[in-house]
Amino acid sequence: MFPFIRLRFIRLLCLIGLLGGSAVAQAAIYPLGEGRLIGSPMHVEVPDNGGSLEELAAQFQVGLYAMLAANPGVDPFLPRPGRTLTIPSQLLLPDVPRKGIVINLAELRLYYFPEGEDKVYVYPIGIGRVGRETPEMETRIVSKQPDPVWIPPASIRAEHLAQGDPLPERVEAGPDNPLGKFAMRMAYGHGEYLIHGTNKNFGVGLRVSAGCIRLRAPDIEQLFNMVPVGTPVRVINQPVLVSQEPDGRRWIEVHQPLSRTQEEYDGDGAPLVLSDQVQAFINFPYTDLDVVDQALLERSGMPVVIGWN
Questions:
Q1: What is the pTM of this model?
Q2: What pLDDT does residue 185 have?
């Protein structure tokens, strides 16, 4: 299981802004086939000049949380030069239609399926923190804004004021704007949520936002230029993904479920609840239950074979 002491450590790092790093890559692009397994495993050595895990995550277009889950015990500041790291570059597509934008909160990933093309763009994202959760929803991109102006909601201004960190009523475009250079607006109920950039790279791949979806600067620019207004958006929460592939292999991919309370976040985390569909998949004949148990325990976020059909 992902060590929760590390989760608290990461939260502290984010609060004090110590995790730096620069975004040097854009989306990972995968061809689509009949199955849901995409990509292949990748392993790299930490270079002699080192670098933080965030810098390495940005280089290979994955999130910080995903890198930590795939490499337990690695120092996020100074991974040891020469150490071999696993890049979580193989994954199972979520069990939803391949259309428009799909955001799986549990994975901290955004998928974009361009219409008429047999490929998918995959981006690491930051999502809402505990108490400011990003909701599950089905919506559309209703507008796009380059150089967005940020008008902090009253609730966020009150929260910052209570912490002795008052916010202005309006933040113009520029380096101090937390929305970055591009924003796409989604309607939801009587409110709205944004898919936007950031002026703080460390927030990507973690739960640090007030509910919006946060991407690294080059990622949001690429996505912004591809996605038309009206594109459907589906936000889901699937911590356990399964698939039977055309070659007969049966796979499972397990992520740590999102904590919904501060007690869960500070303690042992949210319980992992398996859906009826996943239970039936696991109980299929010829499943290696020892491998399943290990996957459910480790929650590495990487797909593993649990049997053959």
A1: 0.89
A2: 96
- Which residues fall within 8 angstroms of residue 126, CB to CB, at 6 or more apart? 63, 108, 198, 203, 204, 205, 206, 207, 208, 209, 213, 214, 215
Given the residues 14, 190, 212, 255, the one annotated as active site:
212
Q: Where are the domains of the chain?
A: 4-236, 242-308
Do 34 and 246 contact (CB within 8 A), yes or no? yes
- Name the residue with higher pLDDT: 32 or 263: 32
Whether 212 is catalytic: yes
How far apart (Å, rounded) are the C-alpha atoms in residues 237 and 233? Answer: 13
Written out in words, the top-level CATH class of the domain with range 4-236 is: mainly beta
Q: Which of 14, 160, 196, 255 is catalytic?
A: 196
User: Would you state the pLDDT for residue 25?
Assistant: 55
pLDDT tens for residues 50-86? 778 888 888 888 998 899 999 999 998 889 999 999 9
Token couple for 226: 């591809």
